[in-house]
Each structure stands twice: as structure tokens, then as C-alpha cells.
Design brief:
- The protein has 123 residues and is of the alpha+beta class.
- The protein has two domains: 43 residues, no CATH class; 62 residues, no CATH class.
- The protein has three helices and two strands.
- The protein is elongated, with a radius of gyration of 20 Å.
- The two termini are 31 Å apart.
Length: 123
Amino acid sequence: MELKTALKLRNKAKRRKPSFSRQEGYRHVRLRDCWRKPMGKQSKLRKHQKARGSLPMRGYGSPAMARGLTRQGFREVIVHNPAEISRIDARVQAAVISGSVGRLKRSEILKVAKEKGITVLNA
């Protein structure tokens, strides 16, 4: 399968995928909206009863080729200094500047990336 078709299939699958919310998450403010597996013995969601929401299953997954890629089809590589930029393959990978990098070093990284034609995702 080609990469572009895998990305299109992933986008199509994501449109169909429901949002998996926590059981009884709407009821209490203290329960965040993040997913937790229902574990209770009499849990209706665990038993897959109708109208109780859906659980994450392997049918909702994206194609293996597109997994872990950005929308443009790049793999993300975290960069801490200008020397690490030279190890990136511009066709397949994109740089993400680490959050701990300061303004001066960030500008150096951006300059080197522009020279080498490397995409920086958080410029």
C-alpha cells in the first residue's frame, strides 16, 4: 500500500471513529473526559449493551503504514540542538524542537533546517 492511500484511509477511518468517553463521565465533574476501561462486574458499557457508548477495539485502528505519522506523512523527530538536525532525512522525517530549547538555540536550529530543506513542525 502506498503512503498517500494509507493516509487517506486513516482520515476516512478517523471520521467514522466515535469519541470514547469515560463511563459516567458526564455525571461528575471530577471524572475527566479521558478514556478508562470499564471494570465493574455489572457494568453495562463493559457488557456492550446498546446506547451505552462504544469501547476502543481493533476495528477502529488506522493502517499500520500510516500509524505514528503526521498529517503530511512525516515521522516526528525531537531535536535539541543544531547538530541533531543533520541526522534527519528530509523526505521522511520532520523536526520538532524540544520545549526546553531556548530562543537563541531555537533560531540556530531553524536556520540550519531552512538550509537543509527540513520541515520544522513547531516553528
